[in-house]
Amino acid sequence: MKKLLLLFVSISLVACGGSKKAVKSDKYTIESLQNKNYEQILGMYSDANPKNGSEMMEEGTVERPYTILYPETEDEILITWKDESKTSIFDISYSEEGKWSSAKGIKIGTTYDELTKINRKEIKFYGFGWDYSGAVDWNGGKLEDSNIRVFLNPQGKVADKFYGDRMIDATPEEIEALNLKVSTIMYRD
Q1: Cα–Cα distance for residue pair 16/3, rounded to 1 Å
Q2: How far is 92 from 34, CA to CA, in rounded Å?
Q3: For position 122, what pLDDT does the model report?
């Protein structure tokens, strides 16, 4: 009986140790930054070489302080703040194919079909050629309340009917021809 108990404990310890290795770090998910202030973020990313400033944003309607982590690298990420003391994040965005992703696995280059699978419902998107070009509407899917916003960029030829500040109505064949991929990911409370 003792040998059986020892065997069971040994197997349990090995199984637990194996599962610890399988746990993925969320350090480089956009959500890992939420509810953090400037000092906390610097503590998490001491190698980020932060660049700080202030600039007119939101189509030139408001000036916001910002911090860029990993500037001029593929891991560059922009944090805009609600306040000058950088205690509350307004939004976070990135558009390079670095190590960042969303907790749901969305990253730069994720395809339209992959987004639809993650959302568990067909997504809609806005037209191209304006400030919010290719903005995704989660259409009541799983990501509707996620605070994650993504913008698509066509890799294929874009017909005139796909331009403008409006929701696009396209056939599956037209969507396939556009070869849509995520070009920017944003987190906003």
Answers
A1: 20
A2: 9
A3: 94
Ramachandran assignment for 147, one of left (phi > 0), alpha (psi -120 to 50 degrees), beta (any other)? left
132, two tokens: 């919010």
Residue 25 pLDDT level (bands cut at 50, 70, 90): low
Please give the share of the chain, as a percent, with pLDDT higher than 70: 87
What number is the average pLDDT over the span 72-89?
96
Considering only residues 189 and 115, tell me which one the structure prediction assigns the higher pLDDT.
115
**Residue 126 contacts residue 165 (beta carbons within 8 Å):** yes
pLDDT digit string (tens) for 161-177?
999 999 999 999 999 99
